[in-house]
From TrEMBL, chains A, B, C:
Substrates-to-products reaction catalysed: Hydrolysis of terminal non-reducing beta-D-galactose residues in beta-D-galactosides
Enzyme Commission code: 3.2.1.23
Binding site for Zn(2+): C114, C159, C161, C164
Broadest EC class assigned to this enzyme: hydrolase
Name of the protein described by the UniProt record: Beta-galactosidase
GO CC, alphabetical: beta-galactosidase complex
Lineage: Bacteria, Bacillati, Bacillota, Clostridia, Lachnospirales
SUPFAM superfamilies per the UniProt record, alphabetical: (Trans)glycosidases (SSF51445), Class I glutamine amidotransferase-like (SSF52317)
C-alpha cells in the first residue's frame, strides 16, 4: 500500500478546464466529498505542458498538485507521451507510426508514435526530465505513470517504418547470429523463403509475408521488446531527479504486448478494467473475465497491484453501454481489491465537454454536480475503502494453483493454420479458469517462463508451444508431487513454431502418444462419458494412444475413434498428469476440476460449496511486507447474481466491517460483497 | 407548374444511339404514344459534347432538341459535369478526387472530380457557357439541370486533396478567426489536440484523426459548402446567356450533402426517388420512406418540387430487384404528385446496350419496343397526369405539423460515441413520421434553422444537437401555443458538439432534468404503461427527473429506474411540451401521436380514421401563385395494400377524375390512388 | 497412362530435409511400403536450386532423382516459379505483382510475380533451361510440371503494374484495331467513357473504373492470356532439351484463369482436388462438386487427366478441418479414377516442421512414422491402384451429355448488375449437373466454344452471354436431333456484354419471346406445377411469351404473371429445345432431367435407378489409344453415404477386382467403391 492507503480517485484533467476556475475549485471540494485520496494527472497533457517545442508551462500543474496536496490528495503523475502535440507531428512527421500497409499515419488520435523514433524519444525525454526535476520530490506525488496503455493504437499496435525494420533486423541478428540459424528456425526452405541477406527481412504485411509463422512470432516478440525499450527510456528520464516508483497502465488480455516482458521495466503493476457488466442477466462470464485479469496482473509480480482505471457508470465505446446497476459499482470495485488491488481508480473524474470521450462515464457528469446516483455510488466506495484500510494493510492473495497463460503461446496458436483457424486461446483459458472461480479457489495466471514452485495444481490448456526449458520444468513439477493438467493441441511446436518430430516432449509425463486431431463439423460432434454423465466432444478432438500404465478415465463414444481416450491420468514421480483430448463444455470442466481440487487438497477459504454466481478470494498478510501489516487474513465473498444468495456450512466468521458474527449461514444481498475475518 | 404542365418523361440519352437513326426516330414516336412531354438531355454527355479539349460538337443535341420541340416535348438541359471525359482526366489528373486514405482516384465511374479543382471548374464552365449561349433561349428548353446527384461518389463523397485541405483551412479561419476559438470549440485539449498552426488541420482520415467530433462536423459542413460552391459556379456559367431557372437532382436521405445549404443556390427542388417496393408484402415502410422524402423535398423551399428520376419497372443495383407489381407504378407516381411534385420523370427512357446501367429499368427495354407491360404502365401515367393538369394547377400541400430533420444533427448524433454506437437517426425520424403518415396527417421535414411559424405541432426526435438559437425558437413556439415533442438524447450538445454544462437548454420548456441514459441489452429491456397498455422501452432509456408542475404520464416499470418518467407533459406559456424518455415501438408512437393530433386540433383532409396501408395528402391552391390556379383543393387517397380497402365516414366528395360522387364510403382497389375534391 | 501405370504418389520436398539424411533414406523406404510409384519434385525449390543469382545447385536434386529411380519411382519435375527467392525480389522488386489498388507487393508468400515482367521471365527461363538440360532425358523423369496453381495469388490473381497495363493496351489494339471499335464494343458513351487515346485505358480498380463491364470482361480475358503466355514461355524453356510432355496443376472452379485458354499450351491436364468432406453427414453436395470438377478437367482435352494433388487426411486452411473418415480416402481416390484420372497424387508426402503448411495433411506426419491410420489408408490405395492397372489401361469416360460451363459467361453474368447481384454461376451449374450425377449419367462440362457433336443432350443453365457463333452452333445441334435445355437470363448479351436488341438469338429454337425478369423477395416467391407436383419459383423468374407451336409444360401459379410459362418445349428440326423460366429447387431439376434423359435415350451404365448417395461412371477403351488398351469397359459404383447401400435390378456383372459375380443385387459398404465389368 502506498503510504498506508487504499487509493481512491482517478484520472483528473484540469487542463481542459483552466479557463473555468469555479470548476477547478468545485473539483477539490467534491473530491473530498467523494472520499478521493489520489488522482492521476498529466495523461495526454503534452500540448499544455509544452505548448511549443522547448517551451514549458508547468504552472497550472504545480498549482493543481499543491491545491490537491492541501486537500490531502495524493498524485500519480503521468508522462504525457500517450498523445503527441500537433507541433511535434507537424515538424517531425517521421515520429508517427507507419501501419502494416506501409502507410505513414497522419496526425491525430492518440498512441500515434513510433516506438523506435529517436526524435520522439528525445522530445519526450526532455519533457520527462523536467517533470522529474520539478515534481519528483513533491510530497504528495507518489508514483510515476509512464505514458498510457502502451501499444493500444492502430491495428496491430506496431510501427512498420524503416527505423523499426532496421531495429527488427538488429534484434534478429542478435538472436540468431547467422542467417543459417534464422532460416533453420523459420523453416525457410518452405516456399523458397530462404533469406540470403538480412535486409531481405521485412515485418509481416498483408501485401507481403504473413504465412511464415516463425517470422510472425519473432516480429511480435520484437514489438514487445521495442515497446518495453521505449518505456524503459521514459523511466530513465523520470528517475533522473526522482526516486519514486513507476507504473504504466496495462489492459485486459492485451495481445499486442507481452506483459511478462514489459513488467521487467516497472515497479508496480496497474491496469484498466472495463468488464461488460449487464450484457446478460448472468454476470458470471464477465465476473470471471475480470477476476482472471486481476489474477493475471497480480501474478505478474506476485503481489498487490493497482486498479488504475475503471468506470463509475457506463463507458461510451461499446456498441451499447448499459448503466451500472445499483450495487455493481461497489461489487466490482471490491472485486478488484479482493483479488489484490490496493486501489480503486476511475477514468475519469469529470466528463469533458467535447471530443471522443465526452460521454465516457465519470464521477462528475456534465449536469447535476454531485446530485447523481453515480456520485453517491463513488462516495460510498470511498467511504468503505477508507474503513477497510487497516484490515487490508500488507495483505495479498497467495493462490496454490496456477493456470498457464502465455503471450507467445497465444500468438503462435492463433497464428498457425490447422486444425482449425478460429481457435480462441483466451476463451479456452477462461473456461478452465472459470472452474477455479466457481469453486472459490484462487489461481494465478502465469507465463510459461515462471517458476511452478509453490503450486499444487497447474493447468495448461491449449498449450501449443513449449518454450525451451518448459517441458523439463513440468517434469520436475510433477516428479515432485505436482498435479498437472493439459489438453489437445499442446506441446506441438518449439519456440519458433517448429513441430517436434521425435516425441511429444511430455510423452512420459502424460503417458500418451498423440496421433491426429479431428476438427469435426457440428454434425460430426463426438461425446464421452465421465463419472457416469455424458459430455460433448466438439471442435477439437485429438486421437491419442495411452502408453502402458496410463489410466484411461474416459473414451470417445462415437465415430471411427470411439474407444480412444478423452481423459487420461498418468502417475509420474510423486505427482500425476492429466490429459484432456477434446474440447468439451463448462459442465465437464466443473466436474473434472472438482476432482483435481480434491486430489490436490485445495479448497476455498470458507471450505464450503458455493452457490452459482458467488466466488470468494482471500488476502493474507504478505511475507516480507515492510510496515505494519494486518494480523489476520480477510475473505471477500462476492455475489454476482441479481438475487440474494445464501451460503451455508461455513463455521464462525466475523464481518470485518461491522463486527457482526456470521455463524454457519451467510446471507448476501444481490450484487454485493461481504468481507469476513476469523 | 412549368408552363402549366405536369411534366412527364425522363432522362434521354440519344448520344448513345447516334449511329442508329431508326432508333432516334422511334424514340420521338413512342414518346408521343407514352404521353411524354418533357425529357432531360445532356446528363453525362461531356465526352460527346466536347470530344477533344476545346472542340465542341453540339449539332446532335440541337437536332434532338429541335426534333423534340416539333413533337411538343420540352427539354430539361443538364450540364454534363456528372462524369468526366477521359481526355480531361488524362491531361489533368489533379481534377480527380482524392479519397480519405489520401489516394488519388484513377479515371472512371462518375462523380469522380474534386469540387475545389480550378481546372475542373474552368473546363466545365467553358462548356456550360457555350450550352447557355446556344440553348439558353430555345423555346422548348425550360430548365437547367446542374450536374447529377452531387456528392454521390466514392466513400464519403468528399475530396481530400491538398487544394481541398487548403480550402478547408480557409473556411475554418473565416469561421473561427483565431486558433484559440477553434481549439475551444473543438475541445482541443482532450488528447493534446491543440492546434498551434492552421496547417496542422487535416480532414478526418482513417489513418489520422477521426476521434475529434468537432473537427468532423465542421469538415462535413465544409464539404457541403464546397459542393454548393461548385454548383453555384456552374449556375453562374449557365445563367450567363439564359434566364431559365435551375435545379439539381437530390437523393433520398443523402447524408454527405446538407440540402438545406445547397437549396440556397438553386431555384427548383428536384429529386430521384427509388423506394424498394415489394421487399415485403407490407409496403407501408417503403411508402412511408418515399412520403418522408417527398415531404422533405417539398419543405426545403416550401413549395412544389419535381420528381426528377424514378424507375418504371425495376432498378438493377440492389441485391435483388423485383418488378413493379401492377398498379404500383401508377400509385407511386401519384404518391409523388400527391405530396407536391409537379412531375413524374424517369431514369431512363431507353435501356442502353452496355455498361453499368444496361439492366436499369426504362420505358423502353432492349426488346419488344412498346409491346411491354412497362410501356403500357407508363403511357397510362402519362394519360392520367395530362387529365389532372387543370385541377392541380397552382396547388401545393400546406401541412400544419413538422418533424425536425436536420443534417448537422444527423452527422453529430451518429458520429458521437455513447450511449450506443448504432444510433440511426433516419430510422428514428421515420418512426415518428410514420405516425403522421398512418393518420393521414401531413408533416414537413424541416431543419433546425427553419421557422416554426404556422405549425401547430413540431416533433423533434433524437434532437441531439441544439444549434445556436434553436432553444429560443422552440421556447417562443411553445409559449405561443405550439405543441412540441422531443425524446431521449436531445439537447445534449451545441453546434460544435460541446456538451451543455449548465442545464438542459429546454429544461424549463420540457419540465425535466435529465440525469443519465441507459443503453440496456435486450435482456435488460424495460417497459412502461401508457393509457392502460404496456409498451417496451428499449435500446435508449433516459433517466430524468420531473420538475415541479410537470405531469408524468407514464413511468418505467422495471429495474432500478422503475418509477422514473417515460412520458411527461409540461405546460409552458400557451403551449405544451412532451418528452419521451425511451425508445419504444410503432404501437406506442401511433397511440401517442393520436393524442398529440387531438390536442393540436389536427385531422386529415377527410376527417376520418384510415385503414392500415392507406394514407392521404391534400394539395390546396398556393398563396401567391402566379397564374390561374385551381379553385379547389384535391385530396389524394392512396392504398398501399395488396388488397382492396374501404374508407368510411368521409361525407360527400367528388372523384376529381371521373366526376363520380363518393358518399360516405370510398372503396379502393389494391395498390391504387383515388383523387377527390369537394 | 504413363508407361502403363496408374500414378500414385505426390509432392515431395526433400530440400527441406537435406540436413537429415536419415529422413531422406526413410522416405524412399516408406514410399515403397506405401506403393508410391511417382513423386513431384521441385515445386517451390528455386531458392535451393539457385541459391544466388546465376549460381545453381542441382546436386541434391540429381541425387534424389537417382535414388528414386533406383527404387523404381518416377518423377514429375516442376519448374520452381511458384515462389520467388529473396535474392530475386530484393534485386528486382519490379518482378513482383502490383495489386489492383496500385500497390506493389512486398516479398513473401508465393505466386507473387508479375506475369509480364521480363526479368522474372529471364531468370526463370535460365533456370528452366538448365533443368531441361540436366534432367530432361533422365529415365525416371516422365513429365514437366510448370509452376504451381497459376493465378492463385493475391486478390484477383492479376498484376496491375505499368508493364501489364501496357500489355493490356497492346492486346486491346490487336483485338479492336481502332478506338472507335473499342468504344462501340464497350458502349463507351455511357457515363462519357469514350476513350480517345489508348493510354487512357486502365485495368479495373476499386479507386477507378469497375462499372464498365466491357472493360472488365476484356481485362479478365487479357489476364488469362498473359498467364497462359507466361506458362508457354516456361514450356519453351523446359522443352529446349527435352521431349517430355508438360502439365500444370489446375484448381477447382478457378475463376481468375480461363482453363479453356490455358489448356492450349499444355499436353496433359492435371488438377488439385480438395473437397470439403464431412462438412455434413450428407456428403452428396461435395461428391457432386468433386465429380463436376473431374468432369470439367476431363472434358478440357476430352481424355484422361491426372489428379495432381489431394490430401490423405485433413487440410489445414479451412475454418475447421475434419479428418477423413475410414473409407473416404479410398472412395475419393477412386472417384477421381472413375471419372478419368490416371493418377492419385497427394500434397504432400511429409509434413514440414514449420511455416504455413506444417499441419497440412501428408502421408507422413511429424510423429509415429508409418504407424498411422493415414499411412495405412495410403498404402491400401497404392495396392488397389496397382491391381487395377491392367483393366483400366487405355480407358476413358465418353459421356453423351454435356453441361455448358464457360469462364467468359461466368465472369460476365456475375459482374453485371441486375436483375440480382448475388448470382452464383457455379452453384447454378452444379444444381443442373447434380441431376445427372444422381442418375449416374455422365456429363462433360464444356465451354461455349467447344463442339457439341456427339452429345445427345446439352444443358446450358444461366447462359447469359452468347459468344459469337454460339447461337448458330446450338441451332445446328437441335436441328440435327439434339436436345437442348436452357434457362432464365440466357442469351442476353454478346461477347463484350452488349445486350441483343433485335430478338433473343435463339428465339426460334426455344420458341419463346422474353419480356422481363422478376427477382422477387422471399415473400413474393412464386410457384409452378410440373407433372402434378408443385415446385417453388424463386430468386429469378423470367416472364416470357410462348411463340406459336411452343408447348407450355408448366406455368406460374401466382402473382401478376400467373399463367406465364415456366417450362416450355419447342420442336426445332429433328430436335427439341426446353426453356426453364425460373430458378427452382433440386426436386424439380431431378424430375425434369429424368424426362430429359428418357427423351434423349440416356441411361447409366448399369441401366438402373440409383439409391440416394450412389453414383456410377464408366471408363471404356479409348479410341485411338496407342498401346495395349483394356478390352472391356469398367463401371465404378460409388457409395457416398455413411451407411450401406443396395442396388438392385442390374443384371449380371463381374467384380473387376476379385472376380466375384454380381447378379441382380449389388451390396455396398458405406463410403465405398465397387468396380464392375461384364
Amino acid at each position: 500500500m502506498f503510504k498506508g492507503k487504499l487509493l481512491h480517485g482517478g484520472d483528473y484533467n484540469p487542463e481542459q478546464w483552466l479557463d473555468c476556475p469555479e470548476i477547478l475549485e468545485e473539483d477539490i471540494r467534491l473530491m473530498e466529498e467523494a472520499g478521493v485520496n489520489c488522482v492521476t494527472l498529466g495523461v495526454f497533457s503534452w500540448a499544455v505542458l509544452e505548448p511549443e517545442e522547448g517551451v514549458y508551462d508547468f504552472n497550472w500543474l504545480e498549482e493543481r498538485i499543491d491545491r490537491l496536496g492541501e486537500a490531502g490528495i495524493q498524485v500519480i503523475l503521468a508522462t504525457p507521451s500517450g498523445a503527441m502535440p500537433h507541433w511535434l507531428t507537424q515538424k517531425y512527421p517521421e515520429a508517427m507510426q507507419v501501419q502494416e500497409n506501409g502507410k505513414r499515419n497522419l496526425p491525430g488520435k492518440r498512441h500515434n508514435f513510433c516506438y523506435t523514433s529517436p526524435v520522439m524519444r528525445e522530445k519526450i525525454h526532455a519533457l520527462d526530465e523536467r517533470l522529474s526535476e520539478q515534481f519528483g520530490k513533491k510530497e504528495n506525488v507518489i508514483l510515476w505513470h509512464i505514458s498510457n496503455e502502451l501499444g493500444g493504437n492502430f491495428s496491430d499496435g506496431a510501427c512498420h517504418c524503416k527505423l523499426c525494420q532496421e531495429a527488427f533486423r538488429g534484434w534478429l541478428k542478435k538472436k540468431y547470429k547467422t542467417l543459417d540459424n534464422l532460416n533453420r528456425a523459420w523453416w525457410g526452405r518452405f516456399w523458397s523463403h530462404v533469406y540470403t541477406d538480412w535486409n531481405q527481412v521485412h515485418s509481416p504485411a498483408p501485401h507481403g509475408e504473413w504465412s511464415m509463422t516463425g517470422l510472425t512470432v519473432d516480429w511480435r516478440r520484437f514489438v514487445s521488446e521495442q515497446m518495453s525499450d521505449f518505456c524503459r527510456s521514459e523511466i530513465q528520464a523520470v528517475k533522473k531527479y526522482s526516486d519514486l516508483p513507476v507504473t504504466t497502465n496495462f489492459m485486459a488480455f492485451f495481445k499486442n504486448l507481452d506483459y511478462n516482458r514489459l513488467k521487467q521495466e516497472i515497479d508496480i503493476i496497474s491496469w484498466d478494467s472495463y468488464p461488460f457488466w449487464h450484457k446478460s442477466k448472468d454476470e458470471v462470464p464477465e465476473a470471471v473475465w475480470a477476476s482472471a485479469n486481476h489474477s493475471l496482473m497480480r501474478a505478474l509480480k506476485k503481489g498487490p497491484f493497482l486498479l488504475m482505471e475503471s468506470v463509475p457508470s457506463a463507458v461510451n465505446w461499446r456498441e451499447y453501454n448499459p448503466l451500472k446497476r445499483p450495487g455493481m459499482h461497489m461489487l466490482s470495485s471490491l472485486q478488484a481489491v479482493g483479488h489484490g488491488s490496493d486501489s480503486v481508480q476511475y477514468f475519469q473524474w469529470r466528463k469533458g465537454r467535447g471530443a471522443y470521450e465526452k460521454f465516457h462515464g465519470a464521477v462528475l457528469d456534465h449536469l447535476n454536480g454531485k446530485n447523481t446516483r453515480t456520485f453517491r455510488d463513488v462516495a460510498e466506495v470511498g467511504e468503505r475503502l477508507y474503513a477497510l484500510t487497516e484490515c487490508l494493510k500488507g495483505t495479498v492473495n497467495v493462490p496454490k494453483a496456477a493456470v498457464i497463460f502465455d503471450w507467445e503461446n497465444w500468438w503462435a496458436v492463433e497464428d498457425t493454420t490447422g486444425p482449425r483457424l478460429d481457435l480462441d486461446y483466451v476463451e479456452c483459458v477462461l473456461a478452465h479458469y472459470r472452474a477455479f472461480w466457481e469453486a472459490g479457489i484462487e489461481a494465478d495466471l502465469i507465463g510459461m517462463d515462471e517458476p511452478l514452485d509453490g503450486y499444487r495444481l497447474v493447468s495448461a490448456p491449449l498449450n501449443y508451444m513449449y518454450k525451451s526449458g518448459y517441458a523439463n520444468k513440468v517434469k520436475r513439477f510433477v516428479e515432485n508431487g505436482g498435479l498437472y493438467v493439459t489438453t489437445y493441441f499442446s506441446g506441438a511446436v518449439d519456440d519458433t513454431d517448429l513441430c517436434f518430430t521425435e516425441n511429444h516432449p511430455l510423452e512420459d509425463v502424460l503417458g500418451i502418444v498423440p496421433e491426429e486431431i479431428d476438427a469435426p463439423s457440428e454434425e460430426f460432434a463426438n461425446s464421452f462419458s465421465y463419472q457416469g454423465r455424458e459430455y460433448p466432444a466438439v471442435r477439437m478432438c485429438a486421437v491419442v494412444h495411452p502408453k502402458e500404465g496410463t489410466e484411461v478415465l474416459s473414451v470417445y463414444e462415437k465415430d471411427f475413434y470411439a474407444g480412444a481416450p478423452v481423459v487420461t491420468r498418468n502417475s509420474y514421480g510423486e505427482g500425476q498428469a492429466f490429459f484432456i483430448a477434446a474440447q468439451s463444455d463448462m459442465d465437464f470442466l466443473r466436474v473434472f476440476y472438482r476432482d483435481m481440487f480434491q486430489k490436490a487438497g485445495l479448497q476455498n477459504a470458507l471450505g464450503i460449496e458455493l452457490p452459482y454466481g458467488v466466488t470468494i478470494t482471500e488476502r493474507v498478510p504478505q511475507k516480507g511486507y515492510k510496515g505494519q501489516a494486518a494480523e489476520e487474513g480477510v475473505v471477500f465473498v462476492m455475489n454476482f447474481r441479481h438475487e440474494p444468495a445464501e451460503l451455508s456450512g461455513l463455521g464462525e466468521w466475523k464481518d470485518a466491517e461491522n463486527g457482526e458474527i456470521v455463524s454457519s449461514v451467510l446471507r448476501m444481498e444481490k450484487l454485493s460483497c461481504r468481507i469476513l475475518t476469523k
